[in-house]
Specification:
With about 290 residues, the chain is α+β, with helices and mostly antiparallel strands. About 40% of the residues lie in helices and about 25% in strands.
Length: about 290
């Protein structure tokens, strides 16, 4: 871990957000406690990208490069919270993406880099989406009962990991085949302290699942919550989300966050204790 990362982590643990004053001036309607949590969420994204197989440091950015896939949803960049960004930094970041053969793309909590969107749009980037992230803590988590004839398990073998990934891919409308690289990525995430949960039927079929990245500064992102079509409408997604979150908190995490893909998902997550918090921006260079 670099000196900069250690310093930011220590300051956040003591309730201080780096360069908080500039962000508070740009977002005067946002409370200081919210800005501190925003910074912790953003730092967790930085740490996640630093865990990619070949992360690239570009000035104030971390580009999470994974040579095994060209997916822009895995190969993206994010700014370190509270650091100043210049036009030259953006130019250097685009060059790093081009050199790696990847699409220039960023995801980040907007309050942690107040002027970055202007620089990116001036460089030709276009906004893909703005999402409100939802936050859960041990005090707000509610654990619903597991639906009948389903058991929740942590995949412990590569065939189980492949079954989980296949169910997720199918639920999201993609190719249900899990590649070796997909399985390796999931195994690596678990080995680094991440969480994966799969819902198994009586006959061993994987009905769905999801996971959470290794916590950073006691914060983790929950993602990939998916349920195959025949098993929807039974509370499976909520049970999976709650179990992943429970495992995070049991292991010492203090906060978990995620993003909802629509109103139905939003309601599912709120029922298990997730509440709207800050805003994240998705932006890419066409």
């Amino acid at each position: 871990m670099s000196t900069t990362r250690r310093a930011i982590g220590a300051r956040l643990r003591h309730g201080e957000r780096p360069n908080d004053s500039s962000a508070h001036r740009s977002f005067p309607h946002v409370s200081r406690s919210t800005l501190i949590m925003d910074a912790r969420i953003q730092q967790s994204v930085v740490a996640n990208l630093c865990n990619r197989p070949a992360p690239v440091e570009v000035g104030p950015f971390v580009f999470g490069l994974d040579p095994t896939t060209t997916s822009p949803h895995i190969n993206y960049a994010t700014p370190r919270p509270g650091t100043a960004v210049t036009e030259a930094d953006v130019t250097a970041l685009v060059a790093a993406f081009r050199a790696a053969g990847r699409k220039p793309r960023l995801e980040y909590v907007t309050s942690c880099a107040p002027g970055l969107e202007v620089l990116l749009t001036a460089a030709g980037f276009t906004v893909e989406a703005r999402h409100t992230y939802l936050l859960c803590t041990p005090d707000t988590l509610r654990t619903p009962p597991t639906p009948d004839r389903l058991d929740l398990h942590e995949p412990a073998t590569d065939p189980q990991r492949a079954a989980l990934i296949s169910a997720q891919n199918e639920a999201f409308g993609g190719d249900p085949v899990a590649t070796e690289a997909d399985v390796t990525r999931l195994r690596r995430m678990q080995g680094n302290g991440g969480v994966a949960v799969m819902a198994l039927t009586d006959d061993g079929t994987c009905a769905g699942g999801g996971g959470a990245v290794p916590p950073a500064d006691a914060v983790s992102e929950v993602a990939g919550i998916a349920v195959r079509t025949p098993y929807r409408g039974r509370g499976v997604a909520g049970a999976i989300t709650a179990e992943i979150t429970r495992r995070l908190f049991t292991a010492g995490a203090e906060a978990a966050w995620l993003e909802a893909s629509g109103e139905d998902s939003w309601r599912v997550y709120q029922r298990v204790g997730y509440q709207p918090a800050g805003e994240r921006l998705y932006i890419a260079l066409p």
